[in-house]
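Quick illustration for those who missed Monday's session on complexes.
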Amino acid sequence: MGDKITLSIIKADVGSIAGHHMPHPDQLAAATKILAEAKQKDIIIDFYVTHVGDDIQLIMTHRKGVDHPDIHGLAWEAFKSATKVAKELKLYAAGQDLLSEAFSGNVRGMGPGVAELEMEEREAEPVITFHADKTEPGAFNMPIYRIFADPFNTAGLVIDPKMHDGFIFEVYDVFEGRSVLMKTPEESYDVLALIGTPGRYIVRRVYRKSDNLLAAVVSVERLNLTAGRYVGKDDPVAIVRAQHGLPAVGEVLEPFSFPHLVAGWMRGSHHGPLMPVPMRYAKVTRFDGPPRIIALGWNISKGRLIGPVDLFDDVAFDETRRLAEMIAEYMRRHGPFMPHRLGPEEMEYTTLPSVLEKLKDRFVKTEEVKVVKKHSDLLSH
Ligand SMILES: O=P(O)(O)OC[C@H]1O[C@](O)(COP(=O)(O)O)[C@@H](O)[C@@H]1O
Ligand SMILES: [Mg+2]
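Prediction with magnesium ion bound:
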């Protein structure tokens, strides 16, 4: 056991009342009981259980480091217990995100989403945890980029000598399972060249360049890629440290004042605006959405979780929510058409291919159509 503190968020959707809307309070109570017992036994220092939409969020602190079997096993046990409640109550999609029956040391690849950040606690350690529903991890690309690399968002990049050197982005390719470290501001355009494709390249970690301090971590689990079939959306989480040589809390929240379009929403198959909401509105109803995000503010004190403060519970975000509603209305009017519905590549991981499969044999050859040459062929002539 080291001196360092690890903040672990492990989340999963293990069933919901009336569709994919929100968990039952008894599920949250079941998960809370498991974590309270673990706290008594000193396995964890502190914890908080909440939800966004239908995803149960386990927020835990401990001294065991990232990817520790005790912590992952504990989360698995809590989700199992919440699943048992879901089954008893015949809730919808009971145990949805638990892709395996048996736990084997780590929840990665087994369905739940994970963001863990090991830290040397600073004199004061302000941290924000973000929890989203009905979207994918790439939804964090734009806000994380703006927090750590956009001087029009983060005044500190210009003004504060401690972050004037910039940050290092670890970008993860979910299809190839490999990542690349890139420096900002020097390589900003290259970073953007990758992360503008959020279904594939995800900002996974951000480090302060001057001392390699780990400033942010995003969960990168893509549920349907893991399962190889449509299960549900990934519904990602992120941890961002703030202040004192890092972006201020207001700079961390600022990008969310723009409800950018993300993939997810109904059946994980639609683009829609990401709406920042207080915890009381963290339930998804209109067309199973629109995609939603909460921001919880904490101070960590020797591993104790001081908080949370419900950061989007502020009238200053009312106009963002109104804009998100207008965008939601506009996007919905497209019905089953792109770009509201996702493009064919992303639809590969939904239930659409089985519908298309049925139609395949009904196509008959009609008149010859000249096949347009590939751009590369044209260039070679
Ligand atoms: O479970 P069903 O009836 O097949 O419907 C698909 C469901 O998948 C979802 O995309 C699941 O969303 P989650 O990933 O948040 O669980 C819902 O929008 C939709 O209700
Ligand atoms: Mg969900």
